[in-house]
Amino acid sequence: MRRRDFEAMVRRMAAEMPPEFTEGIVAIAVTGKTIPHPVREGVYTLGECIPHEFGEPGEGDSGIRSTVELHYGSFAALAREHPDFDWREEAFETLAHEVRHHLEWRARVPELERLDDAAEANYARHDGEPFPPQFYRDGERVADGVFTVEDDVFVEVVLDRRAWAAAAGRPLGFTWHGRSFEVPLPAELPDILFVTAEALDPAPPGDVVVVLRRKPGARDAVRRPTVGRHAARVASSGPRR
User: Fold this and answer.
1) CB atoms within 10 A of CB 133
2) Residue 193 falls within a domain, yes or no?
3) Which of 7, 78, 160, 229 has its CA 20 to 30 A from that of 219?
4) What are phi and psi of 186, to 5 degrees?
5) CATH of the domain at 219
């Protein structure tokens, strides 16, 4: 299905939804993004509900507004892999799912605040400024040890002190979209290292960051962890899982 036909279909579906369900949704948009699942091969993010907070909540109003996005690139990727892919059915299920998320967001303001804080910290990371080292854990958890903050994916690897010391200067393994990859580490490691993994396939719309953390010990209660950044090209380390 061509993108313009997909957009027209989504517009018709949105117009048919009960207005009480879409109240507070400022836009239902189609993007060109292709968003592969960080762990599971053959799975893509088809849509997202992006919450916003505008002003103070009023009576009967949580103050939350949302933008719902359906990602045409992800739909097209699945359609290429599955000849019997039903564009209409999948679009309707995705739209209904994201509208439901909007209704849930309006009832859970504290979670939105944590997401906002994580997004602000991630902006600081992008700009090379200091940031809270575990901010990504306030993002959306999509699998064990895997979190997303907007378009960026954070894959957490926690090692005990001995394994952490042995990892210095060696490749570190992790999983992306059902495949095993390795990323080389520097010879000296801080307590927490943010490694931007480059040249992943399939490529995500944002960064994939492997967060290597040393498991804290008793002495860490009275000291701040050291934090570092690193970027490296990945290498495939095994077949698809």
Assistant:
1) 21
2) yes
3) 229
4) -70, 165
5) 2.60.260
d(CA 222, CA 16): 58
Domain end, chosen from 107, 122, 150, is at 107
Structure tokens at 15: 């117009």
Q: Are 35 and 205 in contact (CB under 8 A)?
A: yes
Q: What is the pLDDT of residue 164?
A: 92
Answer whether residue 79 is part of any domain: yes
* Bridge partners of residue 192, in order along the sequence: 213, 227
Cα 198 from Cα 201, distance rounded (Å) = 9
Record the pTM.
0.71
Based on the number of CB atoms within 10 Å of its own CB, is 2 exposed (0-12), middle (13-18) or buried (19 or more)? exposed
Domain limits for position 168: 132-240
Alpha carbon distance 35, 66 (integer Å): 20
Mean pLDDT by 10 residues, the chain (241 residues): 96 92 92 91 90 59 82 96 94 92 76 80 91 93 92 94 92 92 94 94 91 81 84 78 49
Q: Which two tokens stand for residue 131?
A: 């940031």
Euclidean distance between CA atoms 54 and 131, whole angstroms: 25
